[in-house]
Design goal:
107 residues; 2 helices; flat; Dimeric_a/b-barrel; Alpha-Beta Plaits; 32% strand; four-stranded antiparallel beta sheet; two-stranded antiparallel sheet; alpha+beta
């Protein structure tokens, strides 16, 4: 089995109400439960990033496609990883997407 990185992209507000937070956590836990042992690292959400450009210029706006979080999974190939991502709860918000990249083992 190969490892794949899911990078969640988009920007939105975190739920402020306890019921909304719990519903979001339940959705993620349900999806992770469905993925089972394929989840290598459940990851985390991330805060606003900075981007260092050539010449040392720094952008403080999260870039053109802000990262919202990540997960690492195992799958038989990238198509399998794509299929597993289709039920990701973040995709319920039209402003978000999941980028999938194979992790290349070095050495």
């Amino acid at each position: 089995m190969a490892k794949f990185l899911y990078v969640y992209h988009g920007s939105g507000k975190m739920p402020t109400e306890e019921a909304e937070r719990q519903a979001a956590m339940d959705a993620w836990n349900g999806w992770y439960g469905k993925l089972g042992a394929a989840v290598v690292d459940g990851g985390n959400p991330v805060g606003m990033s900075k981007t260092v450009l050539p010449g040392g210029k720094v952008e403080n706006n999260g870039g053109s496609n802000p990262t919202a979080g990540y997960t690492i999974i195992e799958a038989k190939d990238i198509d399998d990883a794509v299929d597993k991502a289709k039920d990701c709860p973040i995709l319920k918000d039209p402003g978000f997407s999941v980028e999938i990249a194979p992790i290349i083992e070095m050495g």
